[in-house]
Amino acid sequence: MLRQKAFMKKTKSGKVLKVVKEHYLRDDIWCSVETCKVCEHTEPVLSAVPSINKAFRLPHYIIPDTNIFINQIDVMEHPLITNVIVLQTVLEEVKHLSLPIYQRVRDMIANKEKRFYVFSNEHHRGTFIEKLKDESPNDRNDRAIRVATKWYANHIKDLNPRVSVVMMTDDAGNRDKATADGLQAISVKWYIEALDNTEILDMMSSAKDLDDGQKTIYDEHLSSAHISNGIKSGKYLQGKLGISSHNYLEGSIYTKINGEEGTILIVGRSNLNRAVDGDIIAVELLPKSEWRTTPTGVVVDEEEEQAEEESLKAEQEAAAATAAKEDTIMAEPEAEKATAAVEAHKLDTPQPCGKVVGIIRRNWRQYCGFIDRKSVHTPAGSSAPVNVLFYAMESKIPKIKIRTRQAHSLLGKRIIVAIDSWPRTSRYPIGHFIRALGEAGDKSTETEVLLLEHDVPFHEFSKQVLSFLPVEGENWVVQPEHFAGREDFRSLNVCSIDPPGCTDIDDALHVVPLANGNYQVGVHIADVTHFVKPGNVMDQEAASRGTTVYLVDKRIDMLPSLLGTNLCSLRSNVERLAFSCIWELNKDAEIVNVRFTKSVIASKASLTYEEAQNRIDDASMQDDVTSGIRILNMLAKKLKQRRLDMGALTLASPEVRFSLERDTQDPVDVEMKELKETNALVEEFMLLANISVARKIYEKFPDSAMLRCHPQPPSANFEKLEKAVARFGIEIDHSTSKTLSDSLDSAVLPEEPYFNKLLRIMTTRCMMQALYFCSGAQIEQEFRHYGLATDIYTHFTSPIRRYSDVMVHRQLHAAIDSSLSYGDELTDKEKMNDLCGNLNHRNRMAQQAARSSVELFTHLFFKNKTEEEEGYVIRILKNAFIVLVPKYGIEGIVYASAKVSKADSGESATAQPQPILVYNPETDCLQSTETLAEGETPKTQVQLFQKVMVQISIDDDLKGGGEGGMRQKLKMELLKPWIEGISVHGIANKDDPEAHAVTSTKKRDEAPVPAQDKKRAGKRTKA
Amino acid sequence: MSRAELLSPEGLRIDGRRPAELRKITSTTCVLSQADGSAYLEHGNTKVLAAVYGPREARHRALVLHDRAILNVELNVAPFSTGERRRRSKNDKRLLEMASFVKQTFEPVVIATLYPRSQIDIYLQVIQHDGGTLQACINATTMALIDAGIAMTDYVCACTAGWVEREAAIDLNYMEESSDTSEVTIAMLPKSSKITLTQMESRLHVDKLEEVFRLAGEGCKQMYEVMDKTIRDRAEDLARKMAV
Q: What region holds the Exoribonuclease phosphorolytic domain (chain B) (predicted)?
């Protein structure tokens, strides 16, 4: 049967089109109930005896409407909810409203245990309905759901054992109509309450019913039509909100202001108007008179917190008194005193400020965090539902109000929470509990938290993924048929050099002196693409993971470990498949020619950096492998020298390595990562291979080669650094990487040996992030890799741990073997671009996760310790400065307005304390407040690069108050130079009230990660 | 992910068909009294009118072949055939190309040696466009040629098939065609299963080609059933009328 669907559609360019589509109705869409004899389904999804609920007499299947999925997806994901019929109408609406939720619904449908069945009612002859005249699309869809429910009810009414269907909707009107039709309908709340399960009750998203009598705190958001018109006319600006990591009440968007790119600040709760970090928002510029003229500060808002706490307490007491009255919505106190802070120093040019007028797209996700102990006031053991406040681990996220019946058992635990809504009447967003992860402070819980927070997929590989591994498993060996199309390099003296304990060896080297005095050098990379075929489930999984994530105590693999650490790993004395890059190099390490081939190798030795170094140094070793390493070392030095002459940068990062105790994996010692000559050896040849491969694949795939670039940093990044080093008479010329490298080399202070390293660390933070890109998406001039000073670059050498290399392998294979057939995954510019986007995101997240892991172990290391160490000031904030301690590679904030518990947050300026040090924007330093005569230096000042003594300990003082270690953080206190009011007296005076004053001001911030601190030397080949 | 889901996990395409199902086909012959043969064909919402004139004296003396007829194909797409009104010039290269495809398809099938020194004109008019224009043109031409009584060795049935997300599907509509699907059109002589035209413009993985071809071939056979029935019904109808 054929129906026509005709509708009007507006195209992107604004034209109105009439679209006519065919719509076929079918007789072969089955009900999928196990006991149904009429339908001809082969694999029924819905079980014969479905869910049982006290609310209904018969076992039943659930038919939810769209809003149930949109609002209560966590409840639907609960294992108790099974045998659900998902109507096509509902599924399409969900997809239209929210892709992430659609994906989650799809995942549930794919999960056999959930027994979710998609009934294509729109194409079913018996359930398709035409839109009536004057019926809104929503009403039509509601009716479609009722019609489908009715069809099911009739269809299954004679089955044995008896079953029924239940329509689940929170729309009372819809329920009434359903009941009038003789159908069973129920709201989520009633259904869940009848289930009698605390956990699932907590997971229920709070109802959005607003009490009109409530005082509104926020301005209303504009409608989406209003916003899009405003953006078109230039009245509003659109951008992605980034909240400052130091101040959760200060955000900014980066957008075009009157044709010029710039940043708009959004300061304070009411201007932010319920926007959360990552949301796409519409902003209206404030008049120039309200623009901000002071630099960033660190927020400490205690006053308001107390007020909030009081209200919660009052509410909970009231709730306890009248336990039946459940739906009390807390009365919000007016704690906000949004007066602009009066500042001592002004910036030359005021920064544009704006306020949020509407939200274009929410970027809410699930947040890890903990319940504020102070917000729980009910007696222990009470299981009445209470509203409590939740702190997300990420300091950029506002507190979230959740309603839970298990407040006491969740205290001291890390939990996951989702935001449901943020009504105008509520100071904080309202959310619901999803699940508990474990005890706070526990290493495995904290590790899980950091993986979740950085969006690292760490679940085990599914059976489906593992099914694509070779069937021989560990017994897989190179067979004669593998030699087809491969060169036999088994006789060569190939060896690998890696860090100690490395099990995923993806590269190996060899060298052979040639008769003409040149050298044949080969880099052999694990042939991962022999095992990972494009498009299969394993490949998709690897593409979505993007990279292996290295944490201090564990590794989250990109590929199943059978491949990563065994079949692909180029271990010694076993035959392995490899992808080889063979050069002929002359005595000066210049490339005479290069070729690429697939091969079979048998590594003769897998060495650590140290072993390789010892072999080079030990004159008594004269075997083939050792002399090979010596030649490679000689060539590598020449390569490196040439690279440095070209202007490659030598950057530094304060990386440390933990020695872990064997059993408990607790850190026992910290040491700086040491670099040996052999590190550089391997790195040089890997760089050479990557560059050679990049040229080759770009030649073959000019539009779709996967390459890596490193853009030149803008001058603005260097401004502060330049100012600071000018004091030492040093100039930094960053116009090209060559000049920068030269000025770094000459920047040596004889009295301060660490200065050069420190400068390099800080230069690293001025750099841009290196990115993957698809060659067709950028002009050739932008291919440059600034840090490595090469015109083209890619990643080829670590396919076991990076997906980009897997793609490059495939492209290189296609480039050398013209008879190879390949799909559009190698040629489609769009797909390649999307993939690059994902890989860049995963990489960034992996780096941050690795850094957080180091931070976690630093905290464990310093637990119950107090150390005095030398540090350097590396960043100045308005009311604080950041100190780097090179010995441990850690950073911490030292506050400049110490004794104050209510420092300014840009909001509460009523009791403005006298800061001890104030910020001087001209010199970018903090100085004492006495008035100065012209040319006189202030008595005390703190400036960049200054050497200080700090005392390091772990601040167990938690947000919630009391013990439990809710959010550990590193505490740094100044010892030297002595500044009255800020400094402390060392360990002996730990109980000094001053010291406590310092700690109490540190509320919100984690050890800061400066925005530019992104690039770190990787495992070996950085960039 | 913003791209439309062309094939749902439940196995239905956007218009509710399954991958191996054709759209609804409607066809009639003898729709124009002026022409020697004519046919009107609908593949779902793709609608084509074909008119055949000839064999008749060739327009241009220079083109005449002494031993057989020449074929002349002209294709026109109505400005109102798509949602957006667009007038195409007569020299639109896409249209000329498609006309030449039709011509090449029929040259080996029409027994042109029976009509020496003459010309057969085929005029095609696409009235509504919803994907699969070429297949519709070829099928309509076959029916119009039969209607005109021009000798052919066999029917020519055309069908498209493509790789939609993860499966081969036939008779792609406009939505499926326009979202970057690799599409193959083949024209087949159903009795001998010989292929007289294969046309593909995008990349298709060689592993998938066989499956797509197989399905397209099946589509051609189904198409043959429908066309043959129309022709036979028409012939019976005529025979009945003559008998009266």
A: 21-150, 154-218
Q: Which of B26, B205, B208, B210 to mutate against chain A (most A CBs within 10 Å)?
A: B205
Q: What is the 3-state secondary structure (H, E, C) of A244-306?
A: CCCCCCEEEEEEEECCEEEEEEEECHHHHCCCCCCCEEEEEECCHHHCECCCCCCCCCCHHHH
Rounded Cα distance, A588 and A604, in Å: 27
Q: State how far the alpha carbon of B88 is from the alpha carbons of A542, A545, B47, B92, B131, in Å.
A: 47, 48, 17, 6, 17
- The single residue listed with the structure tokens 């199902």 is B21
CA quadruple A154, A133, A178, A62: dihedral sign: positive
Could you report how far apart the first and last alpha carbons of chain A are, in Å? 60
B9 touches chain A (CB under 8 A): yes
Share of chain A above pLDDT 90, in %: 19
Reference B167, options B25, B9, B15; nearest CA is B9
As given in the structure block, the two tokens for residue A594 are: 């290069």
| A540-598 pLDDT tens trace | 889 989 999 988 888 899 999 898 888 999 988 899 999 999 999 998 889 999 999 99
Report yes or no: A658 and A761 within 8 Å, Cβ to Cβ. no
Return the SS3 of B171.
coil
Between CA A183 and CA A167 the distance in angstroms is 8
Measure CA of the first residue to CA of the last residue in chain B; give whole Å: 64
Model confidence pTM above 0.80 = no
Q: What is the ipTM of this complex?
A: 0.90
Q: How many Cα atoms are found within 13 Å in the side-chain-facing hemisphere of A363?
A: 14
In degrees to the nearest 10, what's the CA dihedral of A437, A443, A447, A453? 60
Q: What 3-state DSSP class applies to A62? A: strand
Contacts of A21 in chain B (CB under 8 A): 14-15, 45, 175
For residue B24, list chain A residues with Cβ-Cβ distance below 8 A: 2, 22, 24
What DSSP state is assigned to residue A79?
A: T
Distance between CA A529 and CA A761 in Å, rounded? 37
B175 close contact with A: CB closer than 8 A: yes
- Per-residue pLDDT band for A314 (boundaries 50, 70, 90) equals low
Residue A824 sits at the chain B interface (C-beta within 8 Å)? yes
Distance of CA A194 to the CA centre of its chain: 38
Structure tokens given for B165? 């997300």
Residues 6+ apart with CB under 8 A from A969: A859, A954, A955, A1002, A1005, A1006, A1007
- Of B98, B132, B186, the closest CA to residue B15 belongs to B132
Q: Which residues of B173-205 are buried (b: 16+ CB within 10 A; e: fewer)?
A: bbbbbeeebbbbbbbbbbeeeeebbebeeeebb
Q: How many angstroms away from the CA of B34 is the closest CA of chain A? A: 32
